[in-house]
Amino acid sequence: MVRMFRFEAAAQQPADGITGWATGLMESLGAPGAGLAIALENLFPPLPSEVILPLAGFTASRGDMNLYAALVWTTIGSVVGALALYWVGALLGRDRTLAIAAKLPLVKVADIEKTEAWFVRHGTKAVFFGRMIPVFRSLISVPAGVERMPVPTFLALTTLGSLLWNTIFVLAGYLLGENWHTVSDYVSMYSKGVLGVVALGVVGFVLTRLLKPGNGTRRASRRDRRR
Questions:
Q1: Burial of residue 173, with CB atoms counted within 10 A of its CB: 0-12 exposed, 13-18 middle, 19 or more buried
Q2: d(Cα 107, Cα 158) in Å, to the nearest integer?
Q3: Around Cβ 181, how many Cβ atoms within 10 Å?
Q4: DSSP the chain
Q5: Alpha-carbon dihedral of residues 72, 183, 160, 148, nearest 10 degrees?
Q6: How far is CA 7 from the centre of its chain?
């Protein structure tokens, strides 16, 4: 169905980039289009949910999309995208993960084992709260798959966490109407803060490995010792 939304929204927001792409999906498919955009956002983290979700709420506020349908379909999209990455982790498996880690510079097998132990203790909280942290929202599905977290548990935690995150931003876009983009402005600051912390962590890890004697060596496997 052709709607006037395309022309009016173009006057308020640039009809290119992520906004134009997401707008096109919602115009063509309605609420399922918003769900598809969020599913792709899970698979490709550079696609920002903080733009797609408020835009879906704004679209609903104009009557071009049902609000409840927007919430349902964006949550379905989140779960589908997360489940795809879960199975990537499951297919990768623990043995392949350790083998890849053993070939990476500055990374030791012990690092992966510590991460694995941490996930065993805190995996349920990580999957739930990870849905509300940029980048980690997507990546947390991979270790869940590697560790073979029970699928029903993974789906329940992912659905609840995604529904909470999506509801906040869809409703914000719905209530703000034509000012929906202000949500993106504020959340982009949050995203940049998270990425800044991650970058500092990576730099600290690299410096520790380079400057601390003996930290660059990997623990030898039993097979290597026997040789």
A1: buried
A2: 29
A3: 16
A4: ---THHHHHHHHS-SSHHHHHHHHHHHHHSHHHHHHHHHHHHHSTTS-HHHHHHHHHHHHHTTSS-HHHHHHHHHHHHHHHHHHHHHHHHHHHHHHHHHHHHHSTT--HHHHHHHHHHHHHHHHHHHHHHTTSTTHHHHTHHHHHHTT--HHHHHHHHHHHHHHHHHHHHHHHHHHGGGTHHHHHHHHHHHHHHHHHHHHHHHHHHHHHHHSTTTTPPPPPHHHHH-
A5: 110
A6: 31
Regarding pTM above 0.85, the answer is: no
The span from the CA of 150 to the CA of 222, in Å, is 31
CA dihedral 167, 173, 176, 179 (to 10 degrees): 150
| 73-103: pLDDT as tens digits | 999 999 999 999 899 888 888 777 777 766 6
In the structure encoding, which two tokens stand for residue 36, read together? 């598809």
Residues 6 or more apart whose Cβ sits within 8 Å of residue 31: 56, 65, 66, 69, 70, 72, 73, 74
Contact indicator for 60, 70 with CB cutoff of 8 Å: yes
Least Cα distance to 22 among 190, 180, 189 occurs for 180
Tokens matching residue 145:
């798959």
**For residue 182, what are its two tokens?**
């202000």
What pLDDT was estimated at residue 164? 92
- Residue 66: φ, ψ to 5°: -75, 135
